[in-house]
Automatic annotation (TrEMBL):
This is Peroxiredoxin Asp f3. The keyword Cell inner membrane does not apply. It is an enzyme of class 1 (oxidoreductase). One of its GO terms (molecular function) is thioredoxin-dependent peroxiredoxin activity. Keywords: Antioxidant, Oxidoreductase, Peroxidase, Redox-active center. InterPro entries: PRX5-like, Redoxin, Thioredoxin-like_sf, Thioredoxin_domain. Thiol-specific peroxidase that catalyzes the reduction of hydrogen peroxide and organic hydroperoxides to water and alcohols, respectively. Plays a role in cell protection against oxidative stress by detoxifying peroxides. Residues 4-168 form the Thioredoxin domain. SUPFAM superfamilies: Thioredoxin-like. The keyword Cell inner membrane does not apply. Its EC number is 1.11.1.24. Belongs to the peroxiredoxin family. Prx5 subfamily.
Amino acid sequence: MAPLNPGDSFPEDVVFSYIPWSEDKGDITACGIPINYYASKEWKDKKVVLFALPGAFTPVCSARHVPGYIEALPKLREKGVDVVAVLAYNDAYVMSAWGKANQVTGDDILFLSDPEARFSKSIGWADEEGRTGRFALIIDHGKVTYAKREREKNVLEVSDAESILKAL
């Protein structure tokens, strides 16, 4: 599949893996059970910001990318965003722990796993190592309204929260 562009429909049958946050499993050492997250179905009638990155607990991702979205969350909600999700190649256990390490609770930001970078590869946006690339999408009721990939792995010019806020 070609990269997604504004005006495209979000692909059907997109399934990620994740561990829903729960208070009883809120400690970083507690493990939940991974389940499928049927993104196409869940996002059909919602305004969604999906940002993707190469890996959890990595320098740019942990120091700037995710914290920027955590900080911007109230402004994203003000602009009508129903779902904010971060996507990486890491498995659901790592993504869950990363969410807890960032003190994200509930469904404020979904920490989703792109197993084997299937989704990223399907849109041609996996990185050179075959992992999830760094990109961002805005999906409004099943239609892509923003789709940009970073020009380099450790650059934040089009997938950061500030860029998304400007695009909304």
